[in-house]
Each structure stands twice: as C-alpha cells, then as structure tokens.
C-alpha cells in the first residue's frame, strides 16, 4: 500500500511543518515512514472546515450517511489483511490481532450505517389542548476525537462512525506512535466522498495539536481515550468551553478465580486476559484474585502457560505476544518489575527483556505472586504484560478486593456457582462484567465504558452512542382548530 504521510485538512492532503519517524517495534531497523506533524494553525483550519461542512453533511440526509458509512466499513473489512499487517508492523500486536482489529473497525462503520437510518424521534401529547410536541435528535456539531495507540484503528472507528452517522463533522487527532494506521483509515474515509471538511485528520504532539483541539471554542464535543492524567487535563479545558465530554481512561481490572471454577478454563482465560495484546489493553486483567483452595494449582498452571507463550516479531507466524510499543513503554514496564520486587511481591516468571533475531522491544510476560491489593502495582494501571496474583480466603473477601479500586472498567469471575455469578453481576462496580470469560473482549453493538476513574460521560458504542453524539430538541406546535 502506498501511504500518504500527510495530514488531511479541508479535503486536502497537506504537509506538516515537521515530520516524525515511525519505527517498527518488532524490528528497529525498519522505518515505516516519516509522518507530518500538525500545528495549532492546522487545527484551526480543520475546525473551520468542519464547522462549515457539518450543516451540509446533516442536510445530505440519512440515506447518504448510510451509504458513505457502509462504503467505509465494507472497504475496511475487504482490506483487513492489508491494513492489519500495517497496523501490526507499527504497533506490535500479532498479525492475527491486527487483521481482526481492522475487520472489527469495519463492523463499527457498517453497524452505524444502519443506525443512521434509525434516527427517530418521539411524539408526545401536550398538557395543553391544541398543541403538538415532537422530540428529535440532532447533531452536536464539530466533534474532536483523540485516540490512543493500542487500538489505532478500532478505537477511532467506534468514535468516528457514530459521529458521522448522526450528522456531525469530525477532527481527529491520533496517537503519534501509530500514524500509519491513522493515515490508512483516513484514506478509506476520504474516499467515501463526504462533503469537503466533514472529516479531518491532524497528526502531531499533544502539546501542539491536542491542546489546541480540545480547547477550541468551535468544538462542540470531545471524545477522548487515554490516560487518567491526560484526561483530567482535557476535562478542565473542555468544560471551560461548556462542550460535551466523553472520556475512557485507566483501569485495574480484576478476575476472580474461585474454588469451584473450571481450572482449565480459568487458566486459559486469565492468560488471555492478562497477556493478550502484550497486556496493552484497557480491559487487561492485571489483578488475579485467587481462592486459597486453588491458589497453588492455579499459580503453577498459570506460570507454565505464561512461559509457553511465543514472544516474537508481530508479523512472524506463530507469534502470540508481540513487542511492547516503544522504548519508553518497555522502560516503564521494567520499572514496574523492580517496583513490584521492592514492595515484596515474588516474581515467579518473566519480566525481563528478551532477545530475538530482530532488535525490538520484546518482553517476557510476568507473573507476580504474594501481592496485596494495597501495593502500587495493584492500584495503578501498568499497561504491560504483567499480572499479579492476590490470595483470598473466600468469595466474600475476593469480591471485596475486586471492588477496592478507584477504577471500574471490566471485571471477571470464574465460577460454576450461579448464585456467586449472579451476585457478582449485580454488585460489581464495573461497566462491563464477564462471567467465565476473559476481561478483554467486547461486542461492537452494545455499550462500552466504566465507572470511577475509568470513564466520564455517556457510554460509547451501540445505540447508547447517540447520547453523546446528538442533542435533543423538543418542538411545540400550535395545531389550531380547523374551520
């Protein structure tokens, strides 16, 4: 695929004042390209173009919006192998995961294409005679979208698709670590023939592009996925403009391994949840709360499972764990290993940088035992292939530990007990609860989001997305009396 390395502003591919190199984390000798870095002026141009285009896009009607989104989604699914290989090359997830992510991104667009046709209002009776009431949803206007590097196609897709489906215009700032995926997605969207300025891509550093975008007075809504620290800064700027705000941030997801679980299933799902995507998922299970009756068996089997995972080049056949995304991320991960040991946790396996035929940011998945819920590694998000085992003497204690966190994104339980599963589903303070499943892995047609520090604002995905990407208007009409 021939890649553009430029920003997409007001319907044109534009050079940046500077560029940034995009390096393959599986092979540091592989430079994927040099990508444009935008400026505050580029943001202003993009927002102005979006503001002008948005009424035209809304006026184009539901059939036009359906057709455009269907075209985008269909092309993403058809090209999932090609774009997925590019995604894996620059982000580091195994090839099968990269292809799957792009295909899933296409499903977001096709699902919201259908939702564009379902944008319906309500009729209500007035308490006053001779008056009719209509309640309808309308677009909010210009939507700023800021996305992370760990799902560089899927996360923007589940934000851009509903934004466009409901008649908004978009200015998108992707993560600087994954610009090639951003450009590939932007190319597909640009080919759908939207009114000039309806969709804009501005790559660049957060201090230059991100700050200007989220604080822009002409932006009506901001949807952000990233860290708690960055999100708190964004919130202050967005709320000062009284714009709508939606944020998905950190997590510290628990998985309860109870004494009545299916042990084969528990080990497989815990390994998947902890180490899939190199642990670089907001839904990863980094706290494994294990009943003491099965603690020894589960720990031994999890360690063996972790040690059999094949760590290697993202594009290599058989790779199960790719590299971490960058030198900075690897350094932070190794620092967590040292910090865990210093806190008194026992490192049972992994946690070291590993060598492979190509130079990359490879790390062996790590399992800590003997941890407590008050340790830093069980309080703060690590975003690493590291998981911690916390022992518990009963279901009640395990449940209390699981809920003892400022976060609340996903939570899982492995049990054969219907009563325990029912209690967990009803009382766990998390946005997504999984029973006998990994904590990672959600569907595209239902709401996604969390509680506490994990999320702010309306849910993403599914029909609940309309709560953020539309505004409600109530219209009153004096019907009069016929002569």
Walk me through what this model shows:
This protein has helices at 40-59, 62-78, 80-91, 95-117, 154-165, 179-190, 206-214, 228-240, 263-275, 292-308, 327-342, 395-403, 418-427, 466-469; strands at residues 7-9, 12-14, 18-23, 31-37, 122-125, 131-139, 142-146, 169-173, 199-201, 221-225, 244-248, 253-257, 285-291, 346-349, 366-369, 386-392, 410-414, 432-435, 455-456, 470-478. The protein is of the alpha/beta class and 483 residues long. It folds into 2 domains: 7-249 and 444-475, 3-Layer(aba) Sandwich (Aldehyde Dehydrogenase, Chain A, domain 1), CATH 3.40.605; 253-435, Aldehyde Dehydrogenase, Chain A, domain 2 (3-Layer(aba) Sandwich). A 7-stranded mixed sheet has the order 14-15-16-13-12-17-18, with helices on both faces. A 6-stranded mixed sheet has the order 9-8-7-10-11-19, sandwiched between helices. β17, α13 and β18 (432-435) form a beta-alpha-beta unit. α3 packs antiparallel against α6 (179-190) and α4 (95-117) runs parallel beside α5. The radius of gyration is 24 Å and the shape is globular. The termini are far apart.
């Amino acid at each position: 695929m021939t890649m553009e390395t430029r920003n997409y502003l007001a319907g044109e591919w534009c050079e940046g004042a500077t560029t940034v190199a995009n390096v393959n984390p599986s092979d540091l000798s592989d430079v994927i390209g040099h990508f444009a870095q935008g400026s505050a002026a580029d943001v202003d141009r993009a927002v102005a173009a979006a503001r002008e285009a948005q009424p035209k896009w809304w006026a184009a009607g539901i059939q036009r919006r359906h057709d455009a989104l269907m075209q985008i989604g269909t092309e993403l699914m058809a090209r999932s192998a090609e774009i997925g290989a590019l995604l894996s090359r620059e982000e580091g997830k195994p090839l099968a995961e990269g292809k799957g992510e792009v295909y899933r991104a296409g499903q977001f667009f096709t699902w919201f294409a259908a939702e564009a046709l379902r944008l319906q209002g309500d009729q209500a009776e007035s308490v006053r005679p001779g008056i009719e009431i209509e309640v309808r949803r309308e677009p909010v206007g210009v939507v700023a979208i800021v996305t992370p590097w760990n799902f560089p196609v899927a996360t923007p897709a589940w934000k851009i698709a509903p934004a466009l489906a409901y008649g908004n215009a978009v200015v998108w700032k992707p993560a600087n670590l994954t610009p090639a995926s951003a450009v590939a997605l932007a190319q597909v969207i640009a080919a759908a023939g939207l009114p000039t300025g309806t969709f804009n891509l501005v790559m660049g550093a957060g201090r230059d592009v991100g700050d200007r975008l989220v604080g822009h007075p002409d932006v009506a809504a901001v949807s952000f996925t990233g860290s708690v620290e960055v999100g708190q800064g964004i919130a202050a700027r967005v709320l000062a403009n009284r714009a709508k705000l939606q944020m998905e941030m950190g997590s510290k997801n628990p998985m309860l391994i109870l004494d009545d679980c299916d042990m084969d299933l528990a080990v497989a799902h815990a390994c998947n949840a902890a180490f899939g995507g190199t642990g670089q998922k907001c839904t990863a299970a980094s706290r494994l709360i294990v009943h003491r009756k099965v603690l020894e068996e589960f720990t031994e089997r999890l360690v063996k499972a972790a040690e059999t995972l094949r760590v290697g080049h993202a594009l290599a056949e058989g790779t199960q764990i790719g590299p971490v995304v960058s030198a900075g991320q690897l350094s932070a991960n190794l620092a967590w290993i040292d910090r865990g040991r210093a806190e008194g946790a026992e490192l049972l396996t992994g946690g070291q940088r590993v060598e492979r035929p190509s130079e990359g940011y490879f790390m062996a998945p790590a399992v800590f035992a003997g941890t407590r819920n008050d340790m830093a590694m069980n309080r703060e998000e690590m975003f690493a292939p590291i998981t911690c085992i916390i022992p518990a003497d009963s279901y009640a204690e395990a449940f209390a530990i699981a809920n003892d966190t400022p976060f609340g994104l996903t939570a899982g339980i492995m049990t054969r007990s219907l009563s325990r599963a029912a209690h967990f589903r009803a009382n766990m303070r998390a946005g997504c609860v999984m029973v006998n499943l990994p904590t990672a892995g959600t569907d595209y047609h239902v709401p996604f989001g969390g509680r506490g520090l994990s999320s702010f604002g309306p849910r993403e995905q599914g029909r609940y997305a309309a709560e953020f990407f539309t505004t409600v208007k109530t219209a009153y009409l004096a019907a009069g009396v016929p002569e």
